[in-house]
Specification:
With about 1050 residues, the protein is an alpha+beta fold. Helix content is about 40%, strand content about 15%. It has 31 helices and 34 strands. Strands 20-27-23-24-25-22-21-26 form an eight-stranded antiparallel beta sheet. α2 crosses α7, α3 runs parallel beside α7 and α18 runs antiparallel to α19. The chain starts with a helix and ends in an 8-residue tail after the last helix.
Amino acid sequence: MPGPITYAAVALMARDRVRSLQRRLKAKQAHGRFFSEAERHLLVLSERALAIVNNAPAGVSAPTPLYGPARGDQLSKFLLMGAIGPELPGYAAFNAKGQRWLRDTLHKGTPDANREQVLAGSTDLPLAFWRKVDPLLPSRLEGGAEKNADRLAMQAYVLGHFAHVATDVVSAPWIDNLAWMPGRAAAPPNPALPKLSREAVVGAIESEVARVIFGRGSGTRGSHWVDWFPTAGQVPDAFYTAMQQALEELYGPGAVRVGGAAYELQRADDKPPPLSSALLKDGYESFRTVMDVGVAWDYWDWLGATWFMYVPALVAYPMVLALPHGKNHLREVKPADHDDGAGLFELISLPFAVNAASALYAHILATTSYLGAESEVIFGWVSTGVQLVALIAFLASLEAGGSGLAPRWVLLFGLPLVLQIIEVVLIGLKGSTNPRRRQLMASILIPVGLSLLFLALYFGDFHKGIEAIAEPPAGQAKGDGVDFAWRFVVWFLLLFGLWWLVALALRFINAQGLPDDVSNARAGRQRHGLRLFDDTALLRSPVGVSPALDALFYPSGRRALLKLWWSGDGTVQLRHLGDRLEFLVDGASTMVPVPPAPMTASEFAAYLQTQVLRGGAQGLVTELAHTAGDALEDAELAPGSAFVDAGDPEDLDDDKTVTVESLIAARTAAASAKTLNAPGGDAVLVFHAHKAAQAVRFDRLGASTDVDETTAAAAGVGTVTSLLNTRTVTLAPGPGVSRFTRFFRPGDLIEAPAGGGVARIVEAVSSDFELTVSTPFPPAAGVTSVPPGTAFARLAMDPRQPIPSPAGAQINTGVDAVGTCTVTVAAGAVAFGAMFRAGDTIRVHMVAGNPAADQSRLVVQVLSDTTMLLESEFDILSPPSIGPFTFERVGREPEHLLPFVAGADDGLDSGDAVMNEAADLATLLCLAATSRLMPAADLAKGAFGGARDLNPVAQVFRNWNLDRRRQNEWKMLVQGEALSEKRGDAAAADPALSPLPAGWQLRVADGEDTSNSLGWARLLRAWSDMAGRPEQDALADTAFRPGQPSNRKLTRALAYLFDMPEPTV
């Protein structure tokens, strides 16, 4: 999902978390007071993991100037190779159609985007790879460390692969949410928001990671990203052999998983290259090339790479002197033996012939892989070969004069030019969205453009420079060489300028949205929510089986489901209304809602026929949109599935034109009636809605109804009350009331009474029925500010946008008795409680019309509607003044949303970004995987002085889909409050696990409750925070921190995840 720089960053963060854990446990062991067997086992795993990633061959100094001080240690390049491992097949056969099939299979379980499995084999693959590659490596007894270097390298790869799994598992919902979010037109005071493609989102993240984590700024010069990864020669052949074997073991012969009818038809047309070790090797080599030209190459690198393209054009000018007839073709007085036909042929053909060398060089730059090369690539190499032959033949034919001009025109000029035109047409027909195709187009157009430019200048004026220094005809005086020299300088300067401009264009064509090219603060720096899938939205396949995880699929994307006609009398029209279809039979409405229970497309079609009647008679004719006989196409429709028509956007990910307004227009058009034709006429199509329509918006507080991450206005259900001069608002219990924990977030605006009442900022939500506001509501009758029975509402707000002070509202600044600044406002002008809460920032406009003079301060406390306490005094103005001034509340990032990029110094004890959660999960997976990489002898208690053997860990290896996430999965891993998925049998194996080792048994079953309650990532943080302190007994029945489970429960939960026996001293 993210890009290579982000994957590398998470792997490095996980490595440092392992080291932090190892140092804490080592220090505690040395202290000697408390040290349990569980801590000993984690210490062994962390030390072994560090030995793998720090001491493996093909090392590179940790590339992290902001990530930490220079350490002097070596980091295995194979760790970073593994960190992008599941993405590598996506680079294979880079020029072939459908070449991402293997990459998609690794991520989704199938290559079909409409059949994404819940269990995709994501952790099975690295474990199967290790089982396959270990026997192919030299024996541990052969030749010591040097002979076993490949084994360490492959182990480092496996740990990196698990870091990739963790990164995708945690980051995919965040990226989905932003990529699926439509744009928004400007609606003052809110600005317009662009629709971001998935590529733009990933690119912005990469840029921010490069800036924040690695301190690269916005540029890539000198960073040498590609040097972080092993060269192709450093990767042993056993890697590709073992990976092919593992893929076929896991996904079947050729790793080919069957997709739906539409996908299989497209695959048959694309004919992507099949699985082979050569395909896998090509993927890694192409990845390094793409990293090299798309990340590591900045403007100066492209200048250095493309200079040769202009040399043939430059030397073409003096080469005219070698043309027997061409050099005199434009003279007024020509030599007696001059042949006009030969002269014209030589002049016209020369620039095209010599630029064949430029075309060859450009094609080499543009082509990264020969596997699965499409027609335009193959044709381009044929065309380039013909051009080179034509160049040689042209030079050899110069002495032929005027003889054989016709075939020379055809073969040496016409044929190469026609082939170039055909290649341009082929590339144009395929589309130019692929950067490689744009490069190929440039490899043709640049040499042709240079040739045409040369001819225009030569026939216009430059011929005079050649005529000035060429041997003149008899009786003519020789010219001045200055005429040639200044024209040659002009030609050189023109080419020099083009060189710089084209290099700049190529830099952006190949940048792929990475550093220097994307500075989108919305994607790189703002907080956003998630898109998760509820289990009720999942599909079963085969239909009718028990809904076990391995038989479940995520909802499909936008695809045609049914074709509809009307064979009866009268007129029947169809309207798409999202969650229902409306049929107008002679104007009379029949509503058919989405299936309330799982139902196949054919079952739904049969149901429609029974519902759409005219005079009690059926007449609706239905047919599956794809009739290829594939049972997979007649998949279930999940309850709540939405329907769209052909006018809905085809691609929510990458269509940058999708906005809230365009979606409303499309849905409005879909709601217009469409007449059903008789059979034989055009069918009206019913489409399954996009995945986004089936996904749940989610944030730190749970499921959300906010469409674009702004708080929508909504009337509350129920009534509230608030006592006089208190900041507490209480909801009256009752059936169906809008519970505060689900209806409000800190920073929202509550209005009471609803519809024109008083508004206050919500400071905190303490329970379903109680919240705290920034300042009390104004007094009302009796002892209340808000009388019982008062209706309430939530007002619309975009917290990122500033809130200006109302017209006429101005503040005065002053200093109280203890020197802390307060600001006051005239009563009635504005209520601070309706604008601010503690933690907000106030910006005061000290000089009207001069933003540079503005001063901002943090709000420490809202004392009343007219007075606030700030963090510090304002700077003294000259001349001194305390106001009045206009002001505004500065926009802020919503706390309930998640940032993506971690801080440079975040560790096990800090950071709430998506990358922090991913690094925590990666730490767990890498430590667990280490137990599967260790020889059996090293797991024995005698090898490390323990009281019990280490067990090969199995409990954490759930086979997640890497592109989608279920709600319960997210809770289990990150947020907590997850449900067990063992169907009531606490001692059973998790149904999402990889194949279990022989003799496996669950040892601490009730540890699952604590791990599900906290979430795996937060369990690791809480346990390491506690266990890393020498004075803390990891088996104590007391809690280290208030509100957390006891130390023993934390340890038992970690023992559950790591398949340890019951923890003991």
